[in-house]
Amino acid sequence: MFKNNFLKFAKRYLTIIILFVCSFINAQEAPKNFQNPILPGFNPDPSICRVGDDYYMVTSSFCWYPGIPIYHSKDLVNWELVGHGITRPEQLNFNGVKDKNGIWAVTIRYHSGLFYLITTCSDCSGNFYITAKNPAGPWSDPVWLKDAVGIDPSLMWDDNDKCYYSGNSWDFKKSWPGQCAIWTQELDLKQQKLVGEKKILTYGYANNAGYAESPHIYKINGDYLLIAAEGGTDMYHSITAHHSSSILESFKADKINPVLSHRQLGKDYPIQAVGHGDLVQTQNGDWWAVVLGKRLVDGQVPLSRETFLCKVNFENGTPIFNPGHGKVLLEQERPNLPWTPVKKEPFRDEFSLDSLALKWHTVRTPKEKWYSLDKGFLTLKLRPQVVDSLVNASMLIQRTSHFQFSASTKLNFKTSKENEQAGLIIYRTNESYYMLMKEKARIVLIRKFNGKKEIIAEAPYTKPEVYFNVKADKLDLQFSFGESLDHMNTIGNIQSLVVISESTVNKFNGTGIGLYATSNGQITKTKASFDWFEYKY
Ligand code: 6LW
Q1: 488 CB contacts (<8 Å, ≥6 apart)?
Q2: What distance in angstroms lies between residue 53's CA and the mean position of ligand 1's atoms?
Q3: How wide is the angle at C-alpha 511 spanned by C-alphas 57 and 48, nearest 5°?
Q4: What's the farthest any 2 CA atoms get from each other in the chain?
Q5: What is the best residue among 42, 45, 307 to mutate for testing ligand 1's pocket, by most ligand atoms within 8 Å of CB?
């Protein structure tokens, strides 16, 4: 009897002691500050919502497939990719769509047990929303809102449970260049259509405001706050605030607009183009904002638009971004939330699972199964499709998210045909990429820059197995190949990431690095097998 009681006592208190020690260790590891960007690499146009003590964030994905990445966090700093909104070919067809189009500016919201993603498929059918009970998916098929003109849709629910759509539009007679309207209208979710009066809320705060877009409306202490982007998603970008006591009345511009911008910091300030934000209130009542920005490296932006976090305080209803600073900071005190690191992806993907990791994407919509995972190999079917066309080629890429990285792969590929290739690719658009490819009897380094495709180096090679590597250091790239990782040979001189950077390509989508195989227009049964892919930083 005594022994049983003692064991019960020891077990209970041992559990408490273990929990205390773990929380103490966790508290010890929790840093005071966090580093921006919180979502590095190709993650523009962030939108965020909170459900209880869980935070969900989405970013624009353009023609990448799966589309609409959904990230989860418990502390606004550590984020984990948990799923995508577009995961079925029948949801959306990106084929024929340019890399700068596709999914633009998603808004994520939660209401009465359902998650909503509302967005624009630019140059591919317009505005739609999808819903899910679990943010990791599966998500519904699109509900298209044909009456919704413009881009950058958002949703808010008023106290009377009515849902309001807000968006940008240029569908009116302009009084000045770049003039856009922010408008709202009730969205009847039962009828799945816009109903009632359509009301223009603002054309932006400045008397010649350009590109008023990405609206989000919040009801705070009984008043309506509208934040929007103005100035266009480049160095004149900004966030402005507008207020009203009724959602269907014109909003009045806040006296301190723009409430956030880096345009007054000059063209060389290391974080540029800050704008396009969304606000979230924590379970402790604090307010934070996620915004897009660009980090300059030697005047270039190789990592495209990324997501940054900044503190927001309210003063008489006005959102004050990073009080005392008025700008996005690369480091600041982290939110008062339980520090919750997420599991880090291993640098090397051994392709040992029976499905691809969520970080892998193709570009445009796959209409057939052209890759397989088997016995620890990723095998790509060579197909006639090429990345130079607006089609879905046999390419799998993941975001480049660091100024210094090393990417490698081990390829097993043999062909007797001159037109067949397989290898490593750094891809921004069909007009701007690098690829290091194995062919019938050689290795070639190919660059496509401003639409001009050229072989910039080659070397004889006939063995079936080859290791490829590319090292990035800010804008410098060095490619190499070899029979083993201990015997690598550089190929070509130092190349430049300017090829895929903002100054030379569209300012919208971002860069991916990964694997590609093609038969360049010919039908074939040839395949290329990759043993592993490693992205180290
Ligand atoms: C986004 C809009 C924008 O919908 O770019 O320049 C679009 N502004 O806010 C894609 O990022």
Answers
A1: 467, 469, 480, 481, 482
A2: 29
A3: 10
A4: 89
A5: 45
- CA angle, 142 as apex, 139 and 143 as ends, to 5°? 125
Pocket flag, ligand 1, residue 185 (CB < 6 Å): no
CB 409 within 8 A of CB 530: yes
Catalytic status, residue 213: yes
Best residue among 63, 104, 119, 238 to mutate for probing ligand 1, ranked by most atoms within 8 Å of CB: 104
Ligand 1: residue whose CA is nearest its atom 8:
233
Residue of 39, 62, 50 lying closest to 430 (CA atoms): 62
Which amino acid, one-letter code, is at 328? V
CB 108 within 8 A of CB 57: yes
CA distances 357 to 202, 352, 354, 361, 516, Å, are 43, 10, 10, 9, 17
Does residue 104 line the site of ligand 1, with CB under 6 A? Answer: yes
Quickly tell me which residue has 């966030």 as its tokens. 239
Residue 278 CB less than 6 A away from ligand 1: no
CATH number of 32-333: 2.115.10.20
DSSP for 17-63, written as a single string? HHHHHHHHHHHHH--SEEES-SB-SS--S-EEEEETTEEEEE---BT
CB of 413 within 6 A of ligand 1: the answer is: no
Phi, psi values for residue 2, rounded to 5°: -60, -40
Q: Which of 75, 213, 420, 431 is catalytic?
A: 213
Alpha carbon of 532 to those of 345, 358, 529: distances in Å?
Answer: 14, 16, 9
Give the nearest ligand 1 atom to 232 CA: 6
**pLDDT mean by block of 10 residues, the chain; 537 residues:** 59 62 61 98 98 98 98 98 98 97 98 98 97 98 97 97 96 91 98 97 92 97 97 95 95 97 96 98 98 95 97 98 98 98 94 97 98 97 98 98 98 98 97 97 96 96 98 98 97 95 79 98 98 98
Q: How many CB atoms lie within 10 A of CB 32?
A: 8
- Which ligand 1 atom sits closest to the C-alpha of 237? 6
Show me where the domains of the chain are located: 32-333, 348-536
DSSP designation for 317: T
Task: Tell me the β-bridge partners of 154.
Answer: 166
- CA-nearest residue, atom 6 of ligand 1: 233
**Is the distance from CB of 475 to CB of 497 less than 8 angstroms?**
yes
The closest residue, in CA terms, to atom 10 on ligand 1 is 104
pTM: 0.94
61 C-alpha to ligand 1 centroid (Å):
11
For the purposes of burial, counting CB atoms within 10 Å of the CB of 89, is it exposed (0-12), middle (13-18) or buried (19 or more)? Answer: middle
Cross-strand partners of 465: 412
Which residues are CB-contacts of 515 (< 8 A; sequence separation ≥ 6)? 378, 380, 395, 396, 397, 409, 422, 423, 424, 425, 528, 530, 533
Domain 348-536: give its CATH code. Answer: 2.60.120.200
- pLDDT 10s digits, 40-53: 999 999 999 999 99
Tell which atom from ligand 1 comes closest to the C-alpha of 122: 4
